[in-house]
């Protein structure tokens, strides 16, 4: 009797995944959009606000209110910070080559608020 290998992606798993993907792609886009809109979004893809880099303000759509952009550094840090857009643009600009893009290091912010112990 042949010994079964543990782990890995087998033919059966591949076929199940392929079937689910083909089923998902065959769903009409309106039905797919209904379900996708209910998923939690962790990126800024919705047009609920606009950022004005000239003033550093956030303008909310549907309201006439504005508020200043603030980066809050908190949690497990030694010194919690609130940095305005003017504070952030005052840092020296630098970039380092990343994997396939240029990475913008956050070392100035880390230097101001080091991790706590």
Helices, strands, pairings?
Elements (H helix, E strand, L loop, with lengths): L10 H16 L2 H8 L12 E4 L4 E4 L5 E3 L1 E4 L7 E4 H5 L6 E2 L4 E2 L3 H6 L5
Antiparallel strand pairs: 1-2, 2-3, 4-5, 6-7
Description:
By secondary structure, the protein is of the alpha+beta class. It has four helices and seven strands. The chain has helices at about 10-25, 30-35, 85-90, 105-110; strands spanning about 50, 55-60, 65-70, 70-75, 80-85, 95, 100-105. The mean pLDDT is about 80. InterPro entries: TAT_signal.
What is the percent of helical residues? 25-40%
What is the helix tally? Answer: 4
Global geometry? extended
End-to-end Cα distance, whole Å, is 56 Å
What's the order of the H and E elements?
HHEEEEEHEEH
Number of strands: 7
Rg measurement, Å: 23 Å
Task: Let me know the largest β-sheet.
Answer: 3 strands, antiparallel
User: Order of strands side by side in the largest beta sheet?
Assistant: 1-2-3
Secondary structural class? alpha+beta
Overall pLDDT confidence: 78
Q: Proportion of β residues? A: 15-25%
Low-confidence stretches: none
Features:
two-stranded antiparallel ribbon; TAT_signal; extended; alpha+beta; single chain
Question: Quick gist of this model?
Answer:
With 117 residues, the protein is of the alpha+beta class.
């Amino acid at each position: 009797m042949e010994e079964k290998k543990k782990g890995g992606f087998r033919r059966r798993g591949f076929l199940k995944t392929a079937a689910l993907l083909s089923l998902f792609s065959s769903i009409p886009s309106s039905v797919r959009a209904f379900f996708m809109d209910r998923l939690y979004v962790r990126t800024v893809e919705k047009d609920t606000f606009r950022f004005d880099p000239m003033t550093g303000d956030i303008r909310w759509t549907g309201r006439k209110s504005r508020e200043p952009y603030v980066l809050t550094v908190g949690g497990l840090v030694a010194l919690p910070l609130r940095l305005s857009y003017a504070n952030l643009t005052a840092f020296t600009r630098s970039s380092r080559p990343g994997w396939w893009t240029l990475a913008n290091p956050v070392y100035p912010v880390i230097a101001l608020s080091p991790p706590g112990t």
